[in-house]
Amino acid sequence: MDTDISSQIKTIEVVVVDYSLDLVGAIAILVVGWIVAGWIKLAVSKALTRLPRSDATVTRALSAVARYLVLAMVLVAVLAQFGVQTASILAVLGTMGLAVGLALQGTLSNVAAGFMLLILRPFRIGDYIDAEGVAGTVEEIGLFSTEFVTFDGLYLVVPNNQIWTKAITNYSRLPTRRLDVGVGIAYSDDIDKALSVLMDLMTGDERVLEDPEPKVMVAELADSSVTLNLRCWTTTDDYWDFRFELKKLAKERVEAAGCTIPFPQRDVHVIGGPVIGGAASAAA
User: Fold this and answer.
1) In degrees rounded to 5, what are phi and psi of residue 171?
2) Which of 57, 149, 169, 200 is the Cys-Cys partner for 130 at CB 3.0 to 4.6 Å?
3) Which residue, 182, 179, 180, 181, is CA-closest to 237?
4) What domains sit in the chain, N to C, each tagged with a CATH number?
């Protein structure tokens, strides 16, 4: 009886020692693999950054993919440490991948859309875009979602498929943009003088590009004013600041030239008919 107990204790000791060694080895592989995955991500990022035509969007995405591949190999190595056969692991992963793929078709569509965004690159990190209501500055393009910062400083995450299937307007892609500003003057004002003053305003500002040349035209004969339109081209970086300033300067220049910027008004003329008060008195 004592012999059986002693043999069982020795067996347990051997199993504990072997399992402890496997556990320590698995932890060591996991720690080292995690560190190596970080190094690989950093190395890929630096290598892609040194390329002559490197792109921050593609660099971040590929470095993240490289890290995930290393972590996947680490997971396989950890399971192999406990005696799980590699062939069995791959078979299980394949089966799990098929099941997960069928269950997460929407998620996989986001991955496919993410790859399309990275390949075709309708926008890059740092661009301001509007995808039919989804608007903001692009911060990160991931495999599943894209991160934005809105114009009012909010953090926004949108699934890639919701962006890829929409019409995308990229406000930052091209170096120049056309700027149109409307100014109304009174019908009694000198139109030629106002046009000349506004043209001088644009030609005298270095932010206005010479090609295409700036123009001022009569855009509309409105109900209460003659609407003049200032049209010029400027750089994308200067666009918004110059747009707001040009409105202010246009108002100041036309007023300094003796023109009036009218506000909507209506004259009412009463032709004939009794006065309401008098009619009421007569009826009484």
Assistant:
1) -85, -10
2) 169
3) 179
4) 2-103 (1.10.287.1260), 123-170 (2.30.30.60), 176-256 (3.30.70.100)
- Global pTM? 0.61
Mind listing the pLDDT tens digit for each residue in 91-123?
A: 666 666 655 555 455 677 888 888 888 888 899
Classify strands 155-159 and 145-149 as parallel, antiparallel or unpaired. antiparallel
Q: List, for residues 21-42, the tens digit of each pLDDT value.
A: 667 777 888 888 888 888 888 8
Q: How far is CA 157 from CA 150, 226, 255, in A?
A: 10, 45, 47
